[in-house]
Write a structure and sequence with these properties.
six-stranded mixed sheet, nine-stranded mixed sheet, alpha/beta, globular, about 400 residues, disordered N terminus, 17 strands, single chain
Length: about 400
């Protein structure tokens, strides 16, 4: 980090101004929020800008394969009880987007920042975070992010000796391996529904034993640490053993786990669990996720799922059969161009649901559903799928760019 006592030098101020101008032009041209292009322009003018912008903030970084956008939002809501917060709420989670977000937070006390897994070490180096939340690691965008164990090793090296309090999921062996290099870890029993990326020991490669909720390696002794925070049903257990009710409008067990980790982070900054969890109740949707929208006189609930672990969690929270389900999958740059992950998703969980398939890779998905013995119809677009769907609320599940396409179509 820069040792300059005034973090915003004339050059930095020029970079911020130029970045905001570029973002405004991008928005005016209808090319999204402009946060990424704005950040790129700003960093081009001052490569140290991210570090400068972070100097006056208590920075909290949130990284994971799944749930980081929602958890970032929950932590931000909780910490507003203690002071003004700046956050990259729209999910622009690489250095350019993060720089853009911090440039708008000159009056903030806290910065709650979602970070793409691949960039965590670099962003942590630049922002000197007080706290880092690590939720899970599973396969995702293999053509870009590589294999999960390599990502865990990358995290482990980047976090070694970090001064930050690391709030980490004790139930994910890959996260535990990554966090264990840090001297100050707070373990949270947040659960792990998807286990297929953690059957071999990240420490020695041996076979992981998983009796009940516990896990350990029978060969090297690497094992689940004792958590100090835990998700227990509809409550968060704090380090004193007190149970605090979870108040969420967001559905599903995964979001309760996100709330448990968020409460642990808030406590690092002196916000009590009761206050933190009550504030989280205000969150109804996150960047369009979980929104119920009206389209063609039908209610559609929009759900994002972009990898096998995410689809498994999403299937657990949709309404039971015969609720109609629309599935949409793309394979553009932001999704990862490799769709082989579709074969790792258990689509038999959709048995009994009328299924409608769309998106750039609808035929890839159709082949996978055929093999899973599911009844489905391939549709040209959302309008056709909605017209064909039987009565009732429709669950719409899409991966990243497919989700953005659908939001634009329904005007969300």
């Amino acid at each position: 980090m820069s040792g300059n006592s005034d973090p915003l030098t004339p050059r930095a101020k020029l970079a911020v101004t130029a970045g905001k101008a570029a973002a405004a032009v991008s928005r005016a041209a209808g090319r999204g929020s402009g946060s990424v292009i704005g950040g790129r322009v700003a960093l081009k003018l001052d490569p140290d800008l991210l570090a400068r912008l972070a100097t006056h903030l208590d920075v909290i970084l949130v990284s994971a394969t799944n749930g980081k956008t929602t958890t970032t939002r929950l932590i931000a809501e909780a910490l507003r009880a203690a002071g003004p917060v700046v956050s990259n709420a729209l999910g622009a989670n690489m250095p350019a987007g993060i720089t853009s977000a911090l440039a708008g937070g000159s009056d903030a006390k806290y910065a709650v920042i979602e970070v793409d897994e691949k960039y965590l070490s670099g962003v942590a180096r630049d922002t000197d975070p007080k706290c880092i939340a690590l939720l899970n690691l599973s396969r995702d965008q293999l053509d870009r992010a590589a294999e999960t164990r390599m990502m865990a090793e990358h995290w482990r090296e980047g976090l070694a000796g970090s001064k930050a309090v690391v709030v980490a999921n004790a139930d994910d062996p890959l996260v535990v391996w990554a966090a264990s290099s840090s001297p100050n870890v707070m373990w949270v029993a947040a659960g792990q529904m998807w286990k297929d990326d953690a059957w071999s020991c990240p420490s020695c490669g041996g076979v992981m034993q998983r009796p009940g909720d516990d896990w350990f390696c029978g060969e090297c002794g690497f094992r689940r640490p004792t958590p100090t925070w835990a998700l227990s049903g509809d409550h968060v257990l704090d380090p004193h053993g007190s149970a605090w009710p979870i108040h969420l409008q967001l559905p599903g067990r995964a979001n309760k786990a996100n709330a448990a980790s968020s409460a642990a982070v808030a406590a690092v900054f002196g916000v009590p669990p009761q206050v933190a969890l009550e504030r989280m109740h205000q969150v109804q949707a996150v960047a369009g996720r979980y929104d119920v929208v009206q389209f063609m006189q039908r209610d559609l609930r929009l759900l994002l799922a972009k990898n096998p672990a995410g689809w498994l969690e999403t299937f657990s929270l949709i309404d039971p059969p015969p609720t109609p389900v629309i599935l949409s999958v793309n394979a553009r740059g932001a999704d990862g161009t490799d769709t082989s992950w579709l074969w790792d998703v258990d689509y038999t969980r959709l048995t009994g649901h009328p299924i409608f398939v769309l998106g750039d890779r609808k035929l890839d998905l159709a082949v996978r559903l055929e093999v899973a013995n599911q009844h489905f119809q391939v549709c040209e677009n959302l309008d056709q799928a909605v017209q064909m769907a039987p009565p009732g609320r429709i669950e719409v599940i899409a991966n990243y760019t497919a989700f953005q396409d659908l939001r634009r179509r329904v005007g969300n």
